[in-house]
Amino acid sequence: STSYETGLTKTRSSFSEKFQLLMANFRAVDENFFDELEETLIAADVGFDMALKISDELQDEVRLTNAKSKKEVQNTIIEKLVDVYDRAGNGEDNTMHFAQTVQPSIFLLVGVNGVGKTTTIGKMADFYKKQGKKVLLAAADTFRAGATEQLVEWAKRDQVDIVTGKGSSDPAAVVFDGVKKAIDGDYDILFVDTAGRLQNNENLMRELEKMKKIITRQLPTAPQEVLLVLDATTGQNALQQARLFKDSTDVTGLVLTKLDGTAKGGIVLAIRQELHLPVKWVGLGEKVTDLAPFNADQFVYGLFK
Ligand code: GDP
């Protein structure tokens, strides 16, 4: 869509500016060039060790292939970055896991406050509704003030159904009601918005486990997706959160939000390298269509365009 294009363009204009500058300044594949490449990667929040590693591997590759021209060198860099992303994975792809039998698929969104969980659910609900899926939302973030109202707004906008708690409901009760309605009403997908309170690891783990237990009790299989939402603009902080959540629950994939207008998109590689989790979606703005399935080739290629 056009807004996806604009979002991607915005991403390019900030994140990729440095890559474009690097190539604009290209004279020859010498020490100076690799120094600048390292600086570019570090500035993009790829991480220090990772930047050096990529640079080393590139030097070998350039020597091996005898790449000399700007175009050849640029292509080698693109191939290397995609290769680094692919190698860090476990062979999984970025597709969503749906229920294997005729029952609702449950997608749990987790992450700290403000990263974009509610917004992402609003966007994803629209995405799947347009594919003809019957979508239900569960507002199980009963802690953050206004979180339920915000999701109710999205439900209205998307024209999908929603289950909310009454007053200061227990999130577990909302999850229970959501799963029941999803089963009884033959919904294809139930999105669960969860609270982003982060006091300590144990608390978080307990809350998420409780939700999963409630779902499993009503449905034979566990949630098909636990998507960890991370704010790309927070760079290394996002990596910290990813570590904590990965230790606390079975995260199946990542959503990287706010990639529009950040120079820190390199965090995609840093997180992938350390935690081996697939990035499934990227958020590219605040509008309903500003969400796209992640594609490593497109992402890296886009940096140089
Ligand atoms: P939650 O607390 O995790 O549910 O976060 P929200 O969904 O309330 O989002 C927090 C803020 O981030 C809101 O102002 C959103 O509009 C904004 N936001 C979410 N995703 C994106 C994105 O991809 N790009 C931009 N620019 N803003 C986003």
UniProtKB/TrEMBL annotation:
EC number: 3.6.5.4
Location in the cell: Cell membrane; Cytoplasm
Residues reported to bind GTP: 111-118, 193-197, 257-260
Topology term for the membrane: Peripheral membrane protein
Any GO molecular function: GTP binding
Record's protein name: Signal recognition particle receptor FtsY
Domain SRP54-type proteins GTP-binding: 104-305
Keyword annotations from UniProtKB, A to Z: Cell membrane, Cytoplasm, GTP-binding, Hydrolase, Membrane, Nucleotide-binding, Receptor
GO biological process annotation, one example: SRP-dependent cotranslational protein targeting to membrane
Superkingdom, taxonomy of origin: Bacteria
Shown part of the complete sequence: 61 to 365 of 368
Gene Ontology annotations for the cellular component aspect, listed alphabetically: cytoplasm; plasma membrane
Annotated catalysed reactions: GTP + H2O = GDP + phosphate + H(+)
The family this protein is said to belong to: Belongs to the GTP-binding SRP family. FtsY subfamily.
Domain Signal recognition particle SRP54 helical bundle: 4-85
AAA+ ATPase domain location: 103-283
Subunit structure as annotated in this protein's UniProt entry: Part of the signal recognition particle protein translocation system, which is composed of SRP and FtsY.
Organism field: Oenococcus sicerae
Function (record text): Involved in targeting and insertion of nascent membrane proteins into the cytoplasmic membrane. Acts as a receptor for the complex formed by the signal recognition particle (SRP) and the ribosome-nascent chain (RNC).
Enzyme class: hydrolase
